[in-house]
């Protein structure tokens, strides 16, 4: 454990804003763990998923719009299609009531290293164990592939319980940084109605 890093993480994040440019300062925390010993999800509600770009973006938007997720929207459909077809790409979706309600995305970046790119649920599905099952599916797949290190990041615009959620599941912080982010609504990537879970000075 790095005491300096832990102190930085423990400090409340005061989100600075550059109002004229519609930018905000986001705190990004990177975490890692060895996936060895991870159990499979143990629920039929979580299954591997092979969507086309449109289906992927439909669920990405339903999960991420409240939190202003925009990375996949910014990269374009062509780049997304290539990512989805990458042999090292793995994706799981969660279902509830016959509808897709969340997903977890893993990228095997090197023989011993993998990144969880996204893991999330639609707002009404929290607290039902589906997040644990999605994350468990990704960790189990990484362990089965011989991966020694899985890493991910969370930020100040994620669910306020995200950091604690990952730490309870064995992830340890290894970096913390600040990044200026331009509001994706200002860039036209998201509608003005997005961002219901993020408080910014301009609404």
From TrEMBL:
InterPro entries named in the record: Acyl_CoA_acyltransferase, Bact_Acetyltransf, GNAT_dom
Keyword terms of this UniProt record: Acyltransferase, Transferase
Recorded coiled-coil stretches: none
Domain N-acetyltransferase: 44-194
Pfam families membership: Acetyltransf_1
Keyword Acyltransferase among record annotations: yes
Superkingdom as given in the UniProt entry: Bacteria
Gene Ontology MF terms in the entry: acyltransferase activity, transferring groups other than amino-acyl groups
Record's protein name: GNAT family N-acetyltransferase
Source species: Sediminicurvatus halobius
């Amino acid at each position: 454990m790095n005491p300096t890093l832990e102190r930085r993480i423990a400090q409340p994040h005061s989100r600075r804003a550059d109002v004229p440019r519609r930018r905000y300062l986001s705190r990004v925390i990177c975490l890692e763990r060895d996936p060895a010993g991870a159990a499979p999800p143990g629920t039929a509600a979580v299954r591997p998923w092979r969507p086309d770009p449109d289906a992927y973006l439909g669920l990405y938007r339903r999960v991420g719009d409240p939190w202003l997720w925009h990375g996949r929207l910014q990269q374009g459909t062509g780049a997304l299609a290539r990512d989805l077809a990458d042999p090292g790409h793995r994706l799981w979706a969660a279902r509830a009531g016959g509808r897709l309600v969340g997903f977890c995305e893993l990228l095997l970046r090197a023989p011993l290293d993998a990144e969880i790119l996204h893991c999330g649920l639609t707002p009404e599905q929290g607290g039902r164990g589906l997040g644990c099952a999605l994350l468990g599916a990704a960790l189990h797949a990484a362990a089965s592939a011989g991966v020694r290190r899985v890493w991910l990041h969370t930020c100040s615009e994620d669910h306020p319980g995200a950091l604690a959620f990952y730490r309870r599941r064995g992830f340890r912080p290894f970096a913390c940084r600040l990044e200026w982010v331009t509001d994706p609504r200002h860039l036209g990537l998201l509608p003005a109605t997005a961002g219901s879970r993020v408080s910014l000075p301009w609404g």
